[in-house]
Amino acid sequence: MSGDAQSVVTAAVLVIGDEILSGRTKDRNIGTIAEHLTSIGIALREVRVVGDVEEEIVAALNALRARYDYVFTTGGIGPTHDDITADSIAKAFGVGIGVHPEAEKLMAAYYAGRGMELTPARLRMARVPEGGRLIGNRVTGAPGFCVGNVIVMAGVPEIMRAMLMAISPELRTGAKVHSVTLPVDRPESEIADVFAAHQRRYPGVAMGSYPLLRNGEAATDLVLRSSDGAMLREAVEGLRKALAL
Amino acid sequence: MSGDAQSVVTAAVLVIGDEILSGRTKDRNIGTIAEHLTSIGIALREVRVVGDVEEEIVAALNALRARYDYVFTTGGIGPTHDDITADSIAKAFGVGIGVHPEAEKLMAAYYAGRGMELTPARLRMARVPEGGRLIGNRVTGAPGFCVGNVIVMAGVPEIMRAMLMAISPELRTGAKVHSVTLPVDRPESEIADVFAAHQRRYPGVAMGSYPLLRNGEAATDLVLRSSDGAMLREAVEGLRKALAL
Does B19 touch chain A if contact means CB atoms closer than 8 Å? Predict the structure, then answer.
C-alpha cells in the first residue's frame, strides 16, 4: 500500500444482484467497503446497485471505471447460471474470458482437500477475463480477480471481506481523511446557524450534521472531516467554543 | 394505489449523503424501500449513492428520472447547511425554490405545539421546489415532497418509512412479482446444472441461487420469481422433483 499524503485516490462500488433490488437480501457490503476505504485513504465517491442484467452491468462498470481510480464490485461470481459478473466485465473491457490456470489449480487443490470433485459447474468459478489477476481468500477456493482498475469480489459478506483484505496491500492510497464527531444534546435546527458560519470559516473542513434521538430527545452529531489534522483540530476547538460544549 | 396486473412500473433509489460514503453511517433505507416496492408491485431497477455535492445529485437525478417511472431519494432535507437536496432537485428540474405555504403552516403548528419557535433554520425545511407537493409524516413536522416523478424523503430511517407509507397510496403500481424460496442442503455448485436447465425451460421465471452456511454446512437458497403465479407454481414443483426435495 503506497500512500501519498497530498493526493486523492477515488473509488466507486458496484453491487450486482437482483436479490438486493428485490429486497430479499439486505446489502451488508457497502458499509464495510466504505469504512475500510476511508480508513486506508481511498475516497469512496459513488455506489451503484444493478440487477443481474449484462447490459446494465456493462454500462455501469464502464461509466464508473472511467471516472474513478478504482471500482470494487460485489456479487455474481458463483457457479450458477445467474452469476454473470465475470462475463459482463470481460464484455465491458472488450476482452475474452476463459479458465485461469492458476485459479483452476487453486480450486482443484481446494476440492481435492475436501474429497470433492472439480465439476464443470465449480470450474465456472475459475473463469477470469483476459489479463485478470487473481485475488485469493481464506474462506473458499474460488478467487476474486482484478482487471485494470476493477476489483471483482464475492457477494457473501465473509468472503467479500477476505478478498478486500487480500487486495488492500496492492492498492494505491492517498491522503487519509480524519474525522471528529461532536455529540450535541440539541436538535440540529438550534445549532444550524452557528454551524453554517463555522463551515464558511473553515472551507477546508467538511462539516456534516446528523440528527438522532438520544435518550428519547432530539439530538445531533456534528461530524468534521479533513485530511489536514492541524486545521481539523482548530476547527473542532473553535466549534466547541462557539456552541459552549 | 392503482395496480395494473399486466404492466411493469419501475423505480430507482438515490441515496444522498457523505456519511454513507465515508462509512460512518450504514444505510438502512435501501433494503426497506426495495422490500416495500416489491410488495406493492413496483420493480426497483437501480440504486445510486452520491455525496452532498450539488452537481453529483443533479446528474444522478436527471439520469434516473428520465429512465424510470419513479425515483425515491433519501437524505439531505434537514435544516443545516449540508442539506442541499431540495436545492439540487430544483436545479435538476430547472425550477425555482421557496418556502411552501402549506409546509410553513404544518411546521408552525408543530413547533407551536411544543412551545418552540419556527426559526429561519427550521423554516429552511419548508423550502420546496416550484410545483412540489408535500408528503407528510407522523414523526416530525418537516414534510418530504414530490416533484414530477421524484419522491424526496428524509434520511433518518423512522422518518423515511413514515414518508414512504404516506406516499404509497398515490403511486401507480404494476404486476406484483411473487417469490418462492427453496432451501437446499447442498452447495450451489452441486445443483448448478439442474438449476440452469430448469431456468432454460422456464424463461418467464427469474431464478437466482444464493449460497449460505446452514448449521455450518454449505447450503443454497434457490429463489424463483414471476408475476405469473400459475407458471411460478409449475416451475417450483418441477424444480422440487428435479432436485428430489
Answer: yes
d(CA A200, CA A125): 52
CATH 3.40.980.10 fits A2-173, yes or no: yes
By C-alpha distance, which of A60, A94, A95 is closest to A74?
A: A60
A chain contacts of residue B189, beta-carbon cutoff 8 Å: 78-79, 119, 121-122, 125
Closest in B31, B49, B82 to A209, CB measured: B82
The type of residue at A92 is A
How high is the pLDDT of residue B214? 85
CA distance A29 to B126: 35
Q: Give span(s): CATH 3.30.70.600, chain B.
A: 178-242
Residues 6+ apart with CB under 8 A from B101: none
pLDDT at residue A51 above 90? yes
Contact list in A for residue B36 (CB cut-off 8 A) is 23
A69-85 as b/e: b if 16+ CB within 10 A: bbbbbbbbbbbbbbbbb
C-beta atoms surrounding B241 within 10 Å = 9
A7 touches chain B (CB under 8 A): no
Look at A47 and B21 and tell me if their CB atoms are within 8 Å.
Answer: yes
Residue A78 cell numbers, joined? 458463483
In this structure, are residues B72 and B104 in contact, taking their beta carbons and an 8 Å threshold? Answer: no
* Confidence (pLDDT) at B39: 95
ipTM higher than 0.90?
yes
Q: Do B211 and A48 touch (CB under 8 A)?
A: no
What is the least distance, in Å, from the CA of B230 to any CA of chain A? 20
Domain limits, CATH 3.40.980.10, in chain A: 2-173
Cα–Cα distance measured from residue A78 to residue B188, given in angstroms and rounded to the nearest whole number: 8
CATH topology classification for B178-242: Alpha-Beta Plaits (3.30.70)
Q: In chain B, positions 82-101, which contact chain A (CB-CB < 8 Å)? A: 82-83
Q: What is the pLDDT of residues A133-148, one digit of tens each?
A: 999 888 888 999 999 9
- pLDDT, tens digit (0-9, with 9 covering 90-100), for B44-88: 999 999 999 999 999 999 999 999 999 999 999 999 999 999 999
- In this model, does residue A44 exceed pLDDT 60? yes
Residues of chain B whose pLDDT is less than 70?
1-6
* Contacts A–B by Cβ distance under 8 A: 187
**In this complex, which of A22, A78, A189 lies closest to B121 when CB atoms are compared?**
A189
Give the predicted TM-score (pTM) of the model.
0.94
